[in-house]
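User: I'm curious what two different proteins look like when written out as structure tokens. Can you demonstrate?

Assistant: Sure. I'll show them one after the other, since each token string lines up with its own sequence. Here's the first protein:
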Amino acid sequence: MHIRFLIRPALIALCLSLTACASLPDVRYLKTSLTPQDSITIQTSQGNLSKQKSESLLAKRLRSDNVKLPELAALEEAATGSPLIAGNKLTLLNDGPETMAAMLAAIKNAKNHINLETYIFNQDALGKEFAELLMQKQREGVQVNIIYDSIGSIGTPPEFFQQLRDSGINLLEFNPVNPFKQLFSWHLNNRDHRKILVVDGVIAFTGGINITSDYSSKSLFRSRKKDNVDLGWRDTHIQVEGPAVASFQWLFMQTWVSHKPDNLAERNYFPPLKPMGKKIVRVIASVPDGDYAVYKAYVLAMQEAKVSIHVTNAYFVPDVQLIQALTDAAKRGVDVKMVFPGISDAGLVMHAGRSFYTELLASGVRIFELQASVLHAKTAVIDGYWSTVGSTNLDMRSFLHNNEVNLITLDKSFGDVMESAFNEDLSNSVEITAEQWAQRPFSDRMREWMARRLEYWL
């Protein structure tokens, strides 16, 4: 049995007895409760733009007949505390082979340092390929620093990580399962779910993809495969070049220094970053007991949606406020479409998510389930301009208990790329209608009811 089928139930059992319940903030009136600044903060490689230049840039880049993007950008900054960053190049990476090829190429070209943060680092064929290359780069004098999650990588033998340490690589095991490794700050339920790779401080990657052979093969996404043999997981990553790379570097550094007293080897972690493109982005991150920036950004964008909300998400166990944002949008005429897994590596989560279908369908939300491949992507495109790719699932675990990171971009051309990917997933999905859903077996209803009781812990 795949180790990840065992991780979540074991974690739930432990956490039920160890952790008090936290709660998400009230965001029902988020727009009216925020106080946006007079001007939006836009960072560049030369520092912050003046108010006049910011307004000029926004007028050129965020022009829309239907959506007041500058207003949304100002509200989002007030909600998340993160500025916009101009001058970036973005490359959307769909599925494992495309992502792994891009990341391995960047690692091979590394000259100074490699910082890798991942939830899962498996000792399988793909994990060994990454490990061998990382050790080779360490031998060449490139400093490699790795953060891996103790629960996510619980199936990986300790000897695998010891081999990396013996090569000179610095490793941080995030929140070890063994309480004696972190006596005075043991938080088993808090996990590092981020996926970040930063190479030489000039190129970054983030998204939903872990270091595991689940991504060795393509899914049906833009594939010519005629059968379902050796299909890989369906996921999405993004490659970032430009000033925004520094934000991912800071996040890696913050996690490292907050969990490990050892200093990182001295390297040029923050080189000067030149503009590499024209994309305006925002890098948002969340931590347990933090300011819930990712949650606020998602809900705000849904509350402000005028035309469309198109979401692809692997693990959907939302709170009542996120459900309200989706159903309210559908009721006011917004085209709300959601792609969820038809096959999942976490059955409890899938059934808990399905327990919300009746309410969503009744409001006019259209629901689709991806076929053939396990869905693991966490993406959204709203009104064709606001897009996000990241590690965050639309579930209580991501919002309350995990370290997460998402990149948001405000850009029509990139929105078109995201819409194209979303439509491709629709073509490989089956729509769930209200009539069909009402006729599902009683056994399915019981699974949904039971899973829903555990929604906070999933």
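Here's a second, unrelated protein for contrast:
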Amino acid sequence: MKKPENQPSQAGLWVRLVGWLERNAATAFLLPTVLVILAFVLFPLVGSLYSSLARLSFRDGGLELSFVGLANYRKLLLGSEQGHFLGHPGTTAWVLWVLVFTAIALGVVMYRRWRAKRSLWVWLGQPLLGGLLLLAFTWLFLSRLLPGTRMGTLQTTLFYVIAGTTLQYLLGLGLALLCAERLPGTRFFRVLFILPLAITPIGVAYMFRMLTDTGKGPLVPLWEALGLGGFSWVNDPWGARLAVLIGDVWQWTPFAFIVLLAALQSIPQEQVEAAAVDGASRWQVFRHIIFPYLLPASATLVLIRLIEGFKIVDLPNILTNGGPGTATESITLHAYFAWRTLDIGTAAALGFLLMVLVSLVTSLYAAWVLPRARGQQ
């Protein structure tokens, strides 16, 4: 049977396919990867967004996920979970002081940027957004430090992030400066200082739970010598928070140490030696030569630790179980407890509030700090 002339042959189709693949090789190779990434990222994101707008309830024959709109967010910000998430506020005198301070700071920043003839968003939008965010954080944190108040999971998380990142950077910088010196035994201490980073967070939590046990832990003689025999860290809110903070700092300081040590070793020694020959003190050498070289690495390091600090969950969960009460409970642990009680909507809403918070902080940090650290402004 004779094949119609207008029907393309199998060889012709193959040639066309090969030609299309050659012309669109990048698309053909990247498209499967993009689809897989979207499937693993976009679908869970959309699913969790719907979960934050829904409520799980038990019905005859199974479970029902009913749409409730913004009810879960209202419960966290204005409803029954407000004290758990935002804490119980104290006196409002802090609000006045913070408003005055923020207004002065915003005025100074906007005046300087107006004199520099920046764009409207640069001289007004960024300072205003940053000032409002700073105002909210300052009031939410400081108003809970007064007597008769209680910190919520938001303030506790901010405490872990700010205090933990600051201590980790300072300790990592100090250890890096010591190991950068040509002293005996520095190789041994370099290995010793990075060992905590090799331990899992759960292992660190159980280890500190054992070390802080003043009744039967290995440090009982030390606690008794200090007059702390039988003292329970968990019964004191700030004692429990400090125990969690110390464990987090002990584990993640090696990360800061490694990054800063690598940055220190890339500094040209000729400049340091020339400054020493010219009579500069060690502080002057550090301030004018070493620290400017460390700024780009330091800014990136702090950004990474800020993002990771918001996700702290292992240490407060294992070490104190979020107690006493909710004193050491982070936002992530709050969401985990809500999920464990099948309050899926509240857990998803907490996750999205945390995502918004981290996005705001990192965006402002990337817009203000990173360009200046890299010498772009």
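A detail about the second structure: The first strand starts at residue 54 and ends at 59.
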